[in-house]
């Protein structure tokens, strides 16, 4: 498989299904941001964190590839095209969302109650979680913009929404695991 095809040299790209759109199309923006999110999650998984979290992050990366493929598919095509054959892929569904919720609940059970907003940071690994959370929110906004133009399965938006929650709670868990400081945001009063 050649990496370069030269077919995008004039600013267009092909969706799964064959139709071409400008690279600035909101569909490309949506799945491109999901790809960026996936790379950021890989950065978290590469850190010195517990095996369970690494395993969950790898599952999330697989799910994001699936989600990205759904977004990259021509909405008029029911199946993804792969060479001469057609390839069906599983779709993001309620079970993927429920798995994130279970992980969030499990981590939250071992964390102190949150009483204030938290400033991102405290440790590089924690900061990677917060960066990923921000990219996830952007991916959700891009997908929502696409959804309002060309509706797709609601599970995609739900998954991205829940994933940003997961990344926030993972940041809190890793703060605790790494004995880092969780800095609360307490608004400063203006000098009188």
Describe this entry's structure for a reader.
The protein is mostly helical and 192 residues long. The protein has a single domain, classed as Hypothetical Protein Ta1238, Chain: A (Up-down Bundle). 56% of the residues lie in helices and 8% in strands. The chain contains five helices and six strands, in the order E-E-H-H-E-E-H-E-H-H-E. The strands form three sheets. It has a two-stranded antiparallel ribbon. Helix 1 runs antiparallel to helix 2. It is elongated and about 50 Å long. About 3% of the residues have low confidence.
| Shape assignment | elongated
**Overall structural domain count:** 1
Biggest sheet: strands, sense, closure? 2 strands, antiparallel
The helix content, as a percent range, equals 55-70%
How many strand units? 6
What structural class do the secondary elements suggest? Answer: mainly alpha
Q: Round the Cα radius of gyration to an integer and report it.
A: 19 Å
Write the layout of secondary structure elements.
Layout: E1 12-14, E2 20-22, H1 26-45, H2 51-71, E3 80-82, E4 85-87, H3 94-109, E5 117-118, H4 124-149, H5 154-177, E6 184-185
Antiparallel strand pairs: 1-2, 3-4, 5-6
Helix pairs in contact: 1-2, 1-4, 3-5, 4-5
């Amino acid at each position: 498989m050649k990496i370069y095809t030269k077919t995008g040299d004039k600013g267009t790209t092909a969706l799964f299904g064959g139709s071409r759109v400008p690279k600035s199309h909101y569909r490309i923006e949506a799945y491109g941001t999901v790809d960026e999110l996936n790379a950021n999650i890989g950065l978290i998984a590469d850190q010195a964190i517990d095996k369970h979290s690494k395993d969950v992050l790898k599952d999330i990366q697989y799910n994001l590839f699936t989600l990205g493929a759904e977004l990259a598919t021509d909405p008029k095509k029911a199946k993804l095209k792969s060479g001469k054959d057609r390839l069906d892929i599983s779709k993001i569904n309620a079970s993927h969302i429920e798995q994130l919720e279970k992980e969030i609940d499990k981590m939250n059970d071992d964390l102190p109650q949150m009483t204030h907003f938290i400033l991102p940071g405290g440790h590089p690994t924690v900061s990677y979680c917060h960066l990923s959370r921000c990219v996830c929110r952007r991916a959700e906004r891009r997908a929502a913009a696409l959804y309002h133009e060309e509706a797709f399965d609601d599970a995609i938006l739900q998954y991205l929404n829940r994933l940003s929650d997961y990344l926030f709670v993972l940041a809190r868990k890793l703060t605790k695991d790494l004995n880092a400081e969780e800095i609360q945001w307490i608004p400063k009063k203006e000098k009188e």
